[in-house]
Amino acid sequence: MSLFAGGTPCWAPDGPAARGGVDVPSLVHGRLGADVVVVGAGLVGLSTAYHLAERRPSLDIAVVDAERPAAGASGRGTGLLGPRVGPPVDQAARRHGPAAARRMHQASVEAVRHAVDLCARLGVPCADGEQIVAARSRTGLASLARQAAAYRALNLDVPVLSAADIRQRVDVPYQAGLLHRHTATLDPAALTAALARACAAKGVRLYGGSPLREVRGGEGGEAGEGRMPELVFPHGTVRAPQAVLAVNAGVAGLGVPVGTVLGVEVHAVATGPLDPEARALLGAGGGPAVIDAVPLAPFFSLTEDGRLVVGGGTALLPDGAAPRRIAVLRTFAWNRLEQWLRTLHPALAGVEITHRWAGRIGVTADGLPVVGPVRGRAGVWYAGGCNGHGLAMSVAHGAYLSAALLGAADTPEPLPWHRSRAPRLPVSGVTRPVLRACLAWTDRTARRATWPELGPRR
Known about the structure:
Elements: E1 30-33, E2 36-39, H1 43-55, E3 61-64, E4 80-81, H2 89-96, H3 98-122, E5 126-135, H4 138-153, E6 160-162, H5 163-169, E7 176-186, H6 188-201, E8 205-207, E9 214-216, E10 230-233, E11 236-239, E12 242-245, E13 262-271, H7 276-281, E14 289-292, E15 299-302, E16 308-316, H8 323-343, E17 353-363, E18 370-373, E19 380-384, H9 391-405, H10 431-450
Parallel strand pairs: 1-11, 2-3, 2-12, 3-8, 5-14, 12-19
Antiparallel strand pairs: 4-7, 5-7, 6-7, 9-10, 10-11, 13-16, 13-17, 14-15, 15-16, 18-19
Protein name: Oxidoreductase
GO cellular component, one term: cytoplasm
InterPro entries: FAD-dep_OxRdtase, FAD/NAD-bd_sf
């Protein structure tokens, strides 16, 4: 597959590591059974299976993927492991109240710790660091001010950084920022792969090449013999008392009432390993990841081997669009990220771009994920819609689901995203151009806020 036309991430998700170090899974053939069936071999699905097997080793668990482990969004992220779930903290406080907003932030911080600990247990390299949510435009600075006030009001330790504070960490002239300590960067495909290996070692059955076609059963009350969920795949079925649909925006068209989780395509590029001077300017190996406070604005981080990864920018609504048009828009999005990258510092003007890739995220109207039982479908659970903040939270969602499915006494108290459905959005027919127009407007806003030169240098 070509680096550019194929959109291969810099962690090469088509390599053996991304398959989890196990044989390519077999198809679902015939009528199969299990105690729990998980659809989706990404981070949420494999984390659910892993934590279930840890809690109750005797369970017969099957994981089924449309392709193979790490083939989807979990193998195509930018590797930022940071504390964010749902809307910004000031919006969370207004919508859900101060107590809930504080718990939401603390849960996301704990999710980062849990993911780092999991990486250590599974032997996945994970580079500790910091994340800075920064701004250089009026729009971004206003957003930072609201968030900083909310963090202070909630007594949360998220310091404000001045322009000088940021320049001490990374030589890019942002005007202000908020510092998240104890974050990390990692290869998301490697973590997904390690989870697949660990699941296989615990006796979890892995199946690939089997897209979910239909969810039968589970209607009405408790899941009994006649109502037990049965999942239909092209060449067979799996029947189980408990079914977890960790399929993100792939839930559309299955007739499962979880509201609207929209599939949106986002983009990233990566350079080859930078020379020592350029690495030092960006913080070297321990440099922070820098995320702009403006939605859809580009962000950047350094990988452990010294590559610069830039993500964000133009987001696309690919469903229903002609393949040729998607290819053109994809190239446009990648070119813009490359141009933006070169504005970060003169030392990056001639750096080689070696990788371009795209991936889909699940987006909800209120910015919150959906993690919980499907209403009216006994025994069926769903998880998805992390809105681009899913690396740490996907692992946490799996841990939560494993406890909830077993009715464990230590199941955490529900948070606002532990719910049965997201708000509904009209996404077909004449409304689809409206959604595309909204994405284009957000993109223009981000471009106005971030595209000009970053300002005078020392």
